[in-house]
């Protein structure tokens, strides 16, 4: 995940907690989003993005017995540049362990879960879109339903992974859906930039929301920043609060 520049002491109105359009988004059910028998593929730019984007959906699909494929593009080890506490060497070991614990908290079947880690370097994906597309294409097949970060999400890594995922899905004959992450935390004045006509709401029950929130907190390295060297929490309070909403939103074509 990428840092979010928010003033935690006085958060401005953001799209996620102020846009009136959120109440009018059409509801979609799991079967309509991922047809029975179809494989769901979730592509995460950074460790933790799979939980933040689709933590609820992953639980619902797992309960229905859908085959799941997770692709983690980067290992997240460059998330704290200049930090002694969270050096790249330490994070290269710690971040995958956080992801294992987060997926366990979601209740996913770790013994059978298909999970591939790409090993790309975070914060350095802009010049690797072709390589990313080729990498992702290796793991997609016709009939898959693919989810990744929106290509206009406001984070360079999210956007390039979104573009590469969409292209790879088209080439493979798979269905692709965008999932916004940082866009929900844009100021309220930017809500017109959201493609509301493509938005669909997947409702989550109380237990699904609770497990998703619990899984998000598995990313201990992301919960606290280091103000002394200018590093903000990569999972700020606004994100953690949004994780408790009783729905997830995807953009469909």
Automatic annotation (TrEMBL):
InterPro entries: GlcNAc_PI_deacetylase-related, LmbE-like_dom_sf. Pfam families: PIG-L. Gene3D superfamilies: LmbE-like (3.40.50.10320). This is PIG-L family deacetylase.
